[in-house]
Amino acid sequence: MSDCNVKTSSELETLLATRRDGYGMPRGFYHDAALYAAEMRTIWLGGWLFAGFEFEIPNPGDFLTITVDGSPVLVLRDDHGSVRAFHNVCRHRGTQLCRKESGHVHAIVCPYHSWTYSRQGELVSCMGMHEGIDKSKLGLKAVHAEVVAGLIYISMAAAPPVFDGLRERFEGTAKPQGFARARIAKVTEYEVEANWKLVWENNRECFHCVQNHPQYVKANFDVYEEAYASEAIRQKMADAVARTESKWAAQGVAITHAKGGLAPLPDPDRNTWYAADRTVMVEGFDTESMDGRRVAPLMGDYQDADVGVLRMRTMPNFWVHGSCDHVVAARLLPAGPRKTIVRGYWLVDQFAREGDDYQLDRLLPFWQLTNEQDWDICKWQQKGVDSFAYEPGPLSQRKEYNVDAFIRWYLKQMRAGGPSGNAARPSSRAT
Ligand code: FES
Ligand SMILES: [Fe+2]
Question: Is the pTM of this model over 0.85?
Answer without folding.
Answer: yes
